Amino acid sequence: MSAGAAPAARAGAAPEALAPEELAELRGTVAGALRAVWERPQTAGEPDAGDARLAAAWQVAVRQGWTELGAAGALDALLAVTAELGRLACPLPLADAHLAAELFAEHDDVVAAIGEGAVRPVVVPAVSGTVRFVDGAGAATHLLLLPEGAGEAVLAPVTGVRPTPGTPVPAWADVDWTADGAVRAPVDAAAAERAQVLLRLALATRAFGAAARAAELALEHASLRHQFGRPIASFQAVSHRCVDGAIDLAAFDALRTEATRLALAGDAGWLLATELAVAHAVEAAPRVQFGAHHTLAATGYFEEHEAPWLFRRVHADVTRVALFVPAAGEPADLLLETGARLPTPYLGEAAEAARAEVRAFLAKSVPPGLTGEDPALVELLADARYLAPGLPVEHGGRGAGAAEQVAIGEELTYAGLAPEARVAAGMLGPTIDRLGTPAQRAQLLPLISRGRMPFYLGYSEPETGSDLAHLRTTAVRDGDDWVVTGQKMWGTGAHLAEWTWLAARTDPAAQAHAGITVFCFPTGLPGWSLQQHRSLAGGVSCTTFFDEVRVPDSARIGETNQGWRVLTEALAHERIVIASGTAALLRLFEDLVDALRADPDRAGPRGSAARATLTSLAVRLQAARALVATSARDALGDGGSVATAPMAKIVGSELEEEFGEAVLRLLGPAAALADGPNAGSPETFETALRYSIMSVVAGGTNDIQRNLVARALGLPR
Asked: Residue ranges of the Acyl-CoA oxidase/dehydrogenase middle domain (predicted)?
């Protein structure tokens, strides 16, 4: 097997992945089966009984068949069990047993003994003499000494265990071993690296399992604990801290799921995907744990509470990750030295087929030199039904689902061939198709599907930016018309728009979300005027004024006073369009990697600050892309959490700001120039930096997005 190859089942075939509901059931079984023997390692003030309880946990694992997961190559099942072990703060080394069964697959007696619990191995780096920092040694029978590269794996009996008290509980130990009776197996460089990477992933998964449980306890506490007459979760500082923890957890879950999928499929991208998940865990799991402790405050500081044991587990596991260093290095090393690219998160069979199709179309049918706003490109995309893929076929679309639309949008955006007309097609088109009248569909959908409906959003107002529920622009019924009076701000492209998509209050007595109606009508009607404002990024947005503008009732979208339904429908579709933004950031990131490859002095050697920065950017970008993939399944009510879309927006947009700053540090002053290192790309580094602020603010500021996530987590207002 070549270097970087993914693990497979013992028989050589890739094992079949378990369905999400099967993994959830397995995790529930783990919690139920272990609760009787392992809740917390000890009670405060009592001697450390962790090793005895760990030995009992081994017996439970044998009875449940968890020690046979390695022989089956069931990586997804193993990680599901491992995550639950983290929630219990239990260092049962099932991943070690998994790797031992894989490395000694030719020794049937060893594999059988592992499955029966007669051999209970702990993986350690290959050293001569005493091995330090061994976790769970008190219940182990053998050490599995793993070479750094090609060599021998040695399964050696344990002869002495000396606990070393400290943060971990059960305590780490110094362990002696003997070569007498040891079993040896040849290991090539690829197998050694694979074992190291999988062990790192297991440790990261267990750490995040512990952090997830701590965050869960903090959420519960924040909702129940009252201070100053209110639940503490109603204070934004507390709720946003909980939200940031939830985002880190969701990002790791998405990264780990993608790495596991690639590993089970035997995809060469599994190594980079796995190391991205591990790098995220090492930085974020302690951050989540500390955040949970800050919310729990004194309640979670004493060892009668679960939180201290979870704290111990998080820090023990993320620290031990560094003991197993793969030859390929950190993600930056893989990107700079091997030509690797960030793997594309999987959106499903139909979406990936659409992705392949649009890539072939762009390569074959789009002449060189066309830009995203070229009318010829708009016509090409409209003819191929890529401009409005979410619309039904009879209205010029493809009838594509949310995931397919995201895949198509990502490819167009990455290529720099995504015209502004896609916004109307992706946001207004499906909304009008679902909630508009037959006459509106007949009039507007052909325009939208052909890219001939330039519009601007009439949402934000001077006193109501993200707070649309309290907008003040009014529309008063007068016969067959509505008379619109008010002011809208930050209407991007309003100076070129031919249509207004306007939200107005039609019932002044109604509270908050009620009493709002949405209209779609041409610009330039009597009483409509605008004032242009040039943004930091160079674009134009406008303040538009409505001085008793008469709008026919035929322009009303949906029922009177039911505009909030229209707004939320449009927002769900807008998120599909926004999701494509990570593809633009991916293109910029690849430009950065190419620039560093071309200038090794700036990239520096392994372990340099520049490479650490590149790894951090890669991790956060991949987290955003993975959350987008998750939100694509959730965006239109297809299941999952409504929180994933705002989570993806928060991670991606805040990364844009960090990315712009990092490029200046990595590439120097040239990156601040229009003809800088990636001149000629669809978007230059300096343009992206100037636009990054708007990414955080647009579509509802990230403070508002965090509030949306908080509501989805069940936190009080």
From this structure: 458-537
Weakest-pLDDT range from 183-187, 214-218, 700-704: 700-704
401 lies in the same domain as 540: no
Beta-bridge partners for 541: 492, 533
Task: State the amino acid at position 411 in one-letter form.
Answer: E
Q: Is residue 627 part of a domain?
A: yes
Per the DSSP assignment, residues forming a β-bridge with 239 are none
Q: Buried b vs exposed e over 690-702: b needs ≥16 C-beta within 10 Å? A: bbbbbbbbbbbeb
Query: Is 600 domain-assigned?
Result: yes
**Can you tell me whether residue 667 is helix, strand or coil?**
helix
Do 28 and 161 reside in the same domain of the chain?
yes
Coil/strand/helix, residue 411: helix
Number of domains in the chain: 4
Query: Can you tell me the mean pLDDT for 432-452?
Result: 94
Q: Round to whole Å and give the CA distance between 581 and 584.
A: 5
Residues involved in catalysis: 574
482 & 429 share domain? no
Q: Which residue type, as a one-letter code, is found at position 79?
A: L
Tell me the pLDDT band of 232, cut-offs 50, 70 and 90: confident
3 state DSSP class of 641: coil
In a domain, 657, yes or no: yes
537: left (phi over 0), alpha (psi -120 to 50) or beta: alpha
Residue where one domain finishes, among candidates 532, 561, 590: 561
| 239 or 467, which is more confident | 239
Calpha distance 625→87 (Å, rounded):
26
* Least confident segment among 33-42, 300-309, 505-514, 610-619: 33-42
Q: How far apart are CA 583 and CA 342, in angstroms?
A: 11
Counting every residue written for the chain, the total comes to: 717
Query: Measured in whole angstroms, how far is the alpha carbon of residue 2 from the centre of its chain?
Result: 29
Q: What distance in Å separates the CA atoms of residue 148 and residue 151, rounded to the nearest whole number? A: 8
Question: Which two tokens mark 124?
Answer: 């350690």
Write down which residue in 191, 209, 233 finishes a domain.
191
Quick check: is 282 in a domain?
no
* Domain containing residue 370: CATH number: 1.10.540.10
Q: What is the pLDDT of residue 47?
A: 52
Domain that holds residue 404: 349-449
Parallel, antiparallel, or unpaired for β 230-231 and 226-227? antiparallel
Q: What is the CATH number of the domain that holds 708?
A: 1.20.140.10
Whether residue 78 is found in the same domain as residue 170: yes
Specify the pairing of strand 121-125 against strand 142-146: parallel
In angstroms, the Cα distances linking 712 to 20, 197, 465, 674 are 21, 34, 22, 42
**CA pair distance 345, 586, nearest whole angstrom:** 12
Q: 333-382, pLDDT tens digit by residue?
A: 999 999 999 999 999 899 999 999 999 999 999 998 888 889 999 999 99
Rounded (10°) CA dihedral 580, 450, 448, 637: -40
- How do strand 455-458 and strand 226-227 relate by DSSP bridges? unpaired
- Buried b / exposed e over 350-363, threshold 16 CB at 10 Å, is ebeebbebbeebbe
Quick one: CA dihedral 117, 118, 122, 126, positive or negative? negative
Measured CA to CA, the distance from residue 581 to residue 564 in angstroms comes to 26
